[in-house]
Amino acid sequence: MKKNKTKIANVALMMAIILFFSACAQAQKDVSKEIQAQNDILTDAIINGDQETVMAYYNSQSTFLPPNGQSFMGVETISMVFNQMATMGVDKIVYKTKKADLHGKVAIEEGKYQLFAQGEALIDEGKYIVTWEKQGNNWIVLQDIWNSSLPLPPQASKEDTLCLITMKIKAEAWEWQKEMAADWLAISEKENPGLAARSANYMDLNPDKNGNYTFHSLVAPYHHGKDNLDIRDVLLLKYSESEADAIMKKFNEGVLEHRVHYISPRF
């Protein structure tokens, strides 16, 4: 009698295990196409400066986990990241969903990304894992972790320096200056691949009382004899002398201050 009860108990346990894993398998669903569609909407909104649409994908619990830095959370902080991308001259973003599996209301996405300036100069590319949650009819990003697939830039040597460029730009010239900077970076990257990876751009998010912005660009390391940061020289790689002069005239009219600092590393 005991043996029969034991057999029945074992069979019941096996059935429960089978049903459990069967339910888990059924609960998992491929939502790659749906997530890719969300990525397409999100990237278009980022490039077009549609902050309302972009921020609709995030909430106070959304967390970014960037490479080589601390994680940060919340809509306001994440908004600053996308503003920073604009100052880098990014005008094309590609998010490519490799796979996305739905577990209940949560989807785990694996994908690849690419960032471009002037639509053709590759600034960065890499891979990411994003956790999405379906809240009502909307998808919300809970966690976003990514890292670049590009090789690390070369380290500074005794012959190299850091180059810090600081500009104060008139409010009415800011949008044109961003476009011009992106064009310049795209030309420079073709001539000297890897320059974009060694460059970091920062903009004060709040203009001064006159509406003017301060823009900082750091090239680290800056390679003497190889990196040409002269604006007109770089423009001449793409434009005629008269065209380059016209661009420089407009550039100078929009800049209140332009300072370049070279800092030698100590060993």
TrEMBL record:
Signal peptide: 1-25
UniProt keyword terms in alphabetical order: Signal
Matching PROSITE patterns: PROKAR_LIPOPROTEIN
TM region positions: none
Species assigned in the record: Salinimicrobium catena
Protein name, UniProt field: DUF4440 domain-containing protein
Location of the DUF4440 domain: 35-140
InterPro entries tied to this protein: DUF4440 (IPR027843), NTF2-like_dom_sf (IPR032710)
Domain of life according to the entry: Bacteria
One Pfam family matching this protein: DUF4440
